[in-house]
Design goal:
Bound molecules: zinc ion
Shape: elongated
Distance between the termini: 22 Å
Number of domains: 1
Number of strands: 0
C-alpha cells in the first residue's frame, strides 16, 4: 500500500474485524465507492462537500476486511 496508514485507522480496524460481520464490511466498501469526479459516493451529505475518495470510512473498512481475511486463514 503506497499511502501511509495511520495507527488510528489500524487500531479501529482491528476492533471492527472482531465485532463486525464480513457482510457489513463489504457493504461499506461498495457504498463508499469512487464517483466520476473522484469523490466518495457514500459520503454525500446536504451540507458538506463529498471528500476525495478513498474516504476515511472506506480506508477503515478496507483494513478491517484485511484483518478478517487474516483471521480466516489462521
Ligand atoms: Zn465515504
Amino acid at each position: 500500500m503506497a499511502r501511509e496508514m495511520t495507527d488510528q485507522i489500524r487500531s479501529i480496524a482491528e476492533v471492527l474485524a472482531v465485532m463486525s460481520s464480513p457482510n457489513a464490511v463489504s457493504r461499506i466498501l461498495s457504498e463508499h465507492s469512487v464517483d466520476s469526479t473522484g469523490h466518495c459516493r457514500g459520503c454525500r451529505y446536504p451540507t458538506v462537500a463529498a471528500p476525495v475518495w478513498p474516504c476515511r470510512l472506506w480506508e477503515i473498512a478496507d483494513e478491517t476486511r484485511r484483518n478478517q481475511e487474516l483471521r480466516a486463514v489462521k
